[in-house]
Amino acid sequence: MWEVNFTDRRRHIIYSSKKKKKKKKKKAPEMAGRDRDWDFLLRTISNSARDSNFAADPAADPSLLHSVKKLYELCKAENSEDLVARIYPQINKLFQRAVASMSQSRTSYGLLLLAILQFYLDFGDVVLHDADPSLRTFFRSCLSREFADSVVAEATLDFLNANKKKLLVSFPTLLPQFFPLLLKLIAWNGEKLEKSFRQIFPALISPGSFLPMFLSLMDLPVLVVALEKVERTSGSLIGSSIASIQQSTAPKMLLDLMDEAYTGSTIGDGEADSESEDNNTIDVADPLFLDLLKDENDGLTERHWTSPGMTAALQAAINSPQSDRLKQVLNIAPRLLDVYFAIALREVNDSIICALIPQLMSRVATTFPDKTFSHKVQKRLLEFMLSSFQRSPNFVALLKKPIMDRLGEAYDSPAKTELALQLCWAMGEYAGGGPSQKDAARELFENLELLLYENLSSSRLGLRQESNIGETSRCSSQSRLLCFVVTAIAKLATVHRELLPRARVSLGKVARSRISDVRVWQRARDYLGLMTEPAISLSVLGPSQPSDENMQSPGIVDWSKGIRKMTAHVPFYILRDQEGPPFHDFSFSDILPAR
Predict the structure, then answer these.
(1) Measured between alpha carbons, how far is 574 from 589 in angstroms, rounded to an integer?
(2) What InterPro entries does this protein map onto (predicted)?
(3) How far is CA 282 from CA 328, 351, 547, in A?
(4) Greater model confidence, 529 or 255
C-alpha cells in the first residue's frame, strides 16, 4: 500500500514537470524572437554610433529613427531598469555623434534627436542623466538650423506640449531662454501650427522673458520680412544657421540684405547707384537686425525704431507686396498679444507690469505699417494699459513722468492722440493715483493745465484760420482732447480739494473762451456748477471705486443714514430732467415718486 502510493505520487510529480516543460517550450519561440529584435535594434544603433563610421551620415539611415523609437517603446513596456541601462550608452553615443555630424550634413536630424530627448526625459533618473545640456544642445545646434522645416517644427511643438509639465518643473529657465527661436518657428510656419504653439506659449513667459517678449511679439511681422530676405539672399533656411550668417565674413551680402529689407531698394539698384546705397543702407552690425534674428533671450535691448533707417524701412514695407506668410503673421501676432496680456493680468506681479507700461506707450504709434494690423494692436495695447491702471491705480502716480511725456506728444500722430486721450481719462478716473498721492496729482494737474492753455490758444487761432478739410479734422481731434482734459481737471480737483481754486480758474477760462466746438465750453460750464456742491461733485465726478477714506461708492445714497444727510447729498443725475442752470432748492418730495 505504501509502495503503490509512493509510486503514484512519483508519477504525478513526473507528469506535472512534463506539463511545465511543455509550457516553457511554447514561450521559447516568442522570447527568442523578441531577443533577436532587441539585439538587431541595439546593433543598428551601436553601428551608427561608432566612431569608425563617422564618414557616414547617421540620420541618412531611416531605420535608425525606427530603432530608437522601438527600443524606447520596449523599455516603457518592460519597465526594466536593466534594459534602460543597457540601451543608454549606445543612445548617448548616437546623440553625441549626431550633434557632431550636423554641421557637415544637409540631412534633417530633428526627429532623431527628439526621439533621443524623449528617452532622456523618461529614463534620465534611472541612468542619472541630466537632460538640460542635451535640450539646450538641441535648440542651439539643431532647431536653430531646422525651424523652417515644417515636419521638424510640428514635431518639436508636439514634443514640448507632451512634456510641458516636466519641462516647467525640472527645467524652468529652458523655454524662456529660447523664446526668440520658437517665435521664429511660428513666424515661418504660420497658422497651421498656431494652435500647438499657443498651448506651449504660456511656458515661454517668465520674469526674465516677460519684457523682451513684448517687443518680439510687436515686431513679429518685421521678423518675417527679415527671414524671407535671408532666404532669398542666401538660400533655404533649412540646414543653415542664421547665427552663422550674421557672423559670416561676407559683409556685402548682409549690406544688400539690409538695403532691400529696410529701404525697399533691390540689390541691382544698390550696384547701380552707390550714392543711394551709402545713404540708405543699414550697417551690418545694426542692433535691430541682430536683435530680430537672435535665437536666445539676452535681456531687454533697445530697438532703434526712431532712427532714419528704420523709418525708411517702415515706409518701404507699405509699398511692398505682402507674402502669404506675412499675411498669416499679421493675424497671429494680435492673437498672441491677447494671450500675453491675459497672462500678465492674471499671473505677473505689479512691478513687472509697471515696467512694461512705458514700453507699451512708446510702441503704440510704432507698429508694422499695415492699417488693419496697427488698429488691432493699438486697441489691445490701450485696453491692457487701462486694465493695468484699474488693477493698480497707483501706477498713475508711479508713471507720472512717462505719462507727462506722452501728453506732450499728443499731436504727433493719430495713435499718440488716442494714447493721450486714454491717459487723460485714467488720470481723472483714478485721481492721479489716489487721494494719498498729493504731489503726483499736483504735477499731473499742472501738465493738464499746460496742455489746456496751449490748446485754447491754438483753438482760437484755428477758429479764424479754419479753411480746409485737414484743418477741420485737426480741430475736431483737438476738441475731443480738450473735453478729456477738462474732465480730468474737474475729477482731480474733486478728489484733491487743494486743487479746486486752480481748477475753477482753468475751467472758467474755457467756459468764457467760446471756442469753435460748443461741447468744450459747455462741459467746462457744467463742471463749474457741479464743483460748487462738493457732495454732488463727488457723486458725479468722484472715482468709480471707493477709496479708503470714503468706503461708500460715489453716486449711491445710503438711505439708512438719511436722517443725517442733507438734500445736497442726493446724486445730481437724479435731477437730469431739470433744465437751465443747476439749482438746489428742492426737497425729497420733488424727486421721490408720490404714493
Answers:
(1) 13
(2) AP5Z1_ARM (IPR055450), ARM-like (IPR011989), ARM-type_fold (IPR016024), TPR_AP5Z1_C (IPR056856)
(3) 27, 36, 53
(4) 529
Q: Which cell numbers in the block locate residue 583?
A: 439749482
Would you say 567 and 587 are in contact if contact means Cβ atoms under 8 Å apart? yes
- φ and ψ of 304, to 5 deg: -85, 70
Dihedral sign from CA coordinates of 355, 219, 366, 291 = positive
Structural contact between residues 147 and 179, judged by C-beta atoms closer than 8 angstroms: no
DSSP letters along 19-87, please? Answer: HHHHHHHHHHHHHHHHHHHHHHHHHHHHHHH-GGGTTS-GGG-HHHHHHHHHHHHHHHHHT-HHHHHHH
Kindly tell me if the per-residue pLDDT of 294 is higher than 70. Answer: yes
Q: Are 289 and 258 in contact (CB under 8 A)?
A: yes
Q: DSSP H helical segments within 348-431, as ranges?
A: 350-363, 371-391, 395-398, 400-407, 414-429
Spatial separation of the C-alpha atoms in residues 558 and 538, rounded to whole Å: 15
Q: DSSP letters of 253-264?
A: HHHHHHHHHHH-
Q: How far is CA 269 from CA 32, 227, 234, 259, 309, in A?
A: 71, 21, 18, 10, 17
Q: Give the pLDDT score at 292.
A: 79
- How far, in Å, CA of 374 to CA of 135, rounded? 37
Domain ranges within the chain, ordered by starting residue: 30-129, 496-546+558-588
Map 330-361 to HEC letters.
Answer: HHHHHHHHHHHHHHHHHHCCHHHHHHHHHHHH
Question: Collapsing DSSP states into helix, strand and coil, what is residue 562?
Answer: helix
Kindly state the helix (H) or strand (E) to which residue 450 belongs, with its residue range: helix 438-465
b vs e for 559-573, b when ≥16 Cβ sit within 10 Å of the residue's Cβ? Answer: eeeeeeeeeebbbbe
Q: Tell me 141's DSSP state.
A: I
Beta-carbon contacts of 417 under 8 Å, excluding residues fewer than 6 positions away, are: 410, 411, 477, 481
Cell representation of residue 543: 472715482
| Residue 41 pLDDT greater than 50, yes or no | yes
Q: What is the pLDDT of residues 432-458, one digit of tens each?
A: 988 889 999 999 999 999 999 888 877
Biggest CA–CA distance in the chain, Å, is 138
**CA 223 to centroid of chain Cα atoms:** 15
The pTM is what?
0.79
What is the number of other CB atoms lying within 10 angstroms of the CB of residue 114?
20
Residues 6+ apart with CB under 8 A from 336: 198, 201, 217, 220
So what's the pLDDT on residue 312? Answer: 62
Helix, strand, coil content of the chain in percent (nearest 5)? 75, 0, 25
Q: How much is the pLDDT for 461?
A: 43
Q: Which three cell numbers stand for residue 162?
A: 507632451
- pLDDT mean over 193-198: 96
* Average pLDDT of span 96-115: 88
pLDDT tens for 51-70 read: 544 445 666 677 888 889 99
Work out the burial of residue 464: count CB atoms within 10 Å of its CB; fewer than 13 is exposed, 13-18 middle, 19 or more buried: exposed
- If phi > 0 it is left, if psi is from -120 to 50 it is alpha, else beta; for residue 297 that is beta
